[in-house]
## 1
Amino acid sequence: GENVEQHPSTLSVQEGDSAVIKCTYSDSASNYFPWYKQELGKRPQLIIDIRSNVGEKKDQRIAVTLNKTAKHFSLHITETQPEDSAVYFCAASKGSGAGSYQLTFGKGTKLSVIP
Amino acid sequence: GAVVSQHPSRVICKSGTSVKIECRSLDFQATTMFWYRQFPKQSLMLMATSNEGSKATYEQGVEKDKFLINHASLTLSTLTVTSAHPEDSSFYICSATNRGGGSLHFGNGTRLTVT
């Protein structure tokens, strides 16, 4: 099955700096890669996603890049703010329709933004 | 926006008893629901995929006789943890999507503690 590796496990940055989280996946058939932000004890919230027919996607301070050949994708957060502090999970899946949401998650990155 | 309601949010039960967790889509028809388990400081692990009107598909290593999933209607899926043991203590989260694989929506999760 799919295996998703996520690095780093913890990341501390100064407010205003950028944060980068990287993930690799094993199944070349995977075609959907969402990123979730999860605050302690709460539901994961989708912050950005990318499909395999796109190499990069940006939404304000957040961007995701995908390298299909190398099977890795990354989350970039610029101008970090204290409220960005949370655990971030990458995920991968394949298929279409509802089946594309059988997600395999990375182990998570605890991001701390220091004021 | 689309809402998934999960109930209860917290439950404490004694070892050997069964616990039922409900996941409801409040404003859309959830043809597919997913159940995840998350241990402290760990990632979300997909337990099973539930399609309305059919038997759930369980991930490898998840005991289908212990984690009973029922998805009898387009708005409700239930997960019953039977004969619960302390090692079943975890955060259980459901997610749902509609026909054709529209956006994925997570419930708020259920914190299960087995004493």
## 2
Amino acid sequence: EVQLVESGGGLVQPGGSLRLSCAASGFSFSTYRMHWVRQAPGKGLVWVSRINTDGSDTSYADSVKGRFTISRDNAKNTLYLQMNSLRAEDTAVYYCARAEYFGSWGQGTLVTVSS
Amino acid sequence: DIQMTQSPSSLSASVGDRVTITCRASQGISNYLAWFQQKPGRAPKSLIYAASSLQSGVPSKFSGSGSGTDFTLTINSLQPEDFATYYCQQYHTYPLTFGGGTKVEI
């Protein structure tokens, strides 16, 4: 069974940093592109970032470019999202998802940016 | 960026109804279109990919169609567990984009 489990969310002050993790199991993690998607409270889904299978290529939404960094450790079957210079508008549930059509999702981790 | 426009934004339906949700892309995306179901407080669930391919384990009462710019999601024989918000998403071009959602209510 495919499982994606996010962790690392929490309350952080504006300008602070946080690193999210997504532990994958039940499939060949190293053969899939992986993504982060977020959802602000009461709002819709927004794609955040993508990484290719070996970590050599990444892309970002304009709203997070230069502040967020996606990475992966295929030996640990884990996806990461390093979030720096956090803003109030980054407050959201962050999901990791598998492949471009988001065939599998984690349960999400809540990030709250507030003073 | 490719804009995805869903309609309606919400609809009221009854158990047993057939429901159709439409999704329009601002430019052609071939069949690179997915549909998701989301219930309150839960992660989205993949229903359909490649516009019309059913995800494993998803009941056949869900169906998708379309290509290019116009797509539809149809739910036959609506059941209580189907009341949720549905999203379309294009994966033809980065940035990947979602429709605004359609809330299916009783």
